[in-house]
Specification:
Blueprint: E1 10-12, E2 29-31, E3 34-36, E4 40-42, H1 51-60, H2 72-81, E5 89-92, H3 96-108, E6 114-118, H4 125-137, E7 141-147, H5 150-159, E8 163-166, H6 176-180, H7 186-196, E9 207-210, H8 216-225, E10 229-232, H9 234-237, E11 246-247, E12 257-261, H10 266-269, E13 279-283, H11 289-307, E14 320-322
Parallel strand pairs: 4-10, 5-6, 6-7, 7-8, 8-9, 9-10
Antiparallel strand pairs: 1-14, 2-3, 11-12, 12-13
Helix pairs in contact: 2-3, 7-8, 8-11
Length: 326
Amino acid sequence: MKMFYSYKDVVLQPAYSEIESRSKLDASVEFLGKRFESVAIPANMKCTINFKKARELSEAGYFYVLHRFYDYEDILNWMVENKDMKTISISIGVNKKDYDFVDKIIEKDARVDFITIDVAHGHHVLVKNMITYIKDKFNVKIIAGNIGTYEAATDLYEWGADAVKIGLSMGKSCTTYNCTGVGTPMFSAVKSIAKGKFFSWEDDIPIIADGQIREVGDVCKALVAGANMVMIGSEFAKCEDSPADIIGGPALDNVNKKVFFGSASSTNKGHDSYVEGQTVYMDMRNETYLQYFDRINQGIQSCMSYAGTNNINNLSDMDYKYRLIN
């Protein structure tokens, strides 16, 4: 039986280095024709991204994906009002209202740079249909997901996706594995798609590794597995300036907690049918998004130094060993 590994099962191995100063290394990344200050992306969830935070990140040079749980009319108005932002990046689903939203974007001639087709099971005919619909209408970069297999990535690429988002059931607030048994141990899932692509496609398809990030070192491991970008939910939600609600007081020993819930939770869905998410309460960190981005970039710079490379894209060549942790 083939073994599949999560980030916690992997230990990166150092190599000979001639890097004189890790602080001089470039941790920025090019993704779908634009350069961003970090590989990290706050998850497209209510607790980690909103209109205000999207504008802040865009202006600071970071990538974001706005969640799809606002009223679409509000998102459209926001897009029109902020047409001069560096980056406009939104999410949609695959239902009739999502097709209507695409039509309204075209009708309003609203600028959009990236559209993420955001569904729980991205290897699906409904995703194929939406990719085709968008590509036939206008020129925009499409990110599609979530998926967990090489076959899924191959299909999404052939259907017209410009990037894929990998990760099922690996988030802190996700209960898909508990409810269905379905899941994607992240290191192996990313690696199988990233390494396999070189043998069947002339061009690489960029990968966003989404989920299971608990430490900055996990971001580095995702890059070694072959990810181009790394989406993070709970760790961004813990930041003091995240959109996640804050609770505290004597009942919680006067410790401020951030309320973090999954997109498939009853909290977000408003009902109890087909729930595959939960609400968790996490200690709030005395750290802003920009400070967290900086901490991530410093970890990546150090990892590059250990790998002996001054090119972030070469981290996928870094050696590693597996260890099994109960």
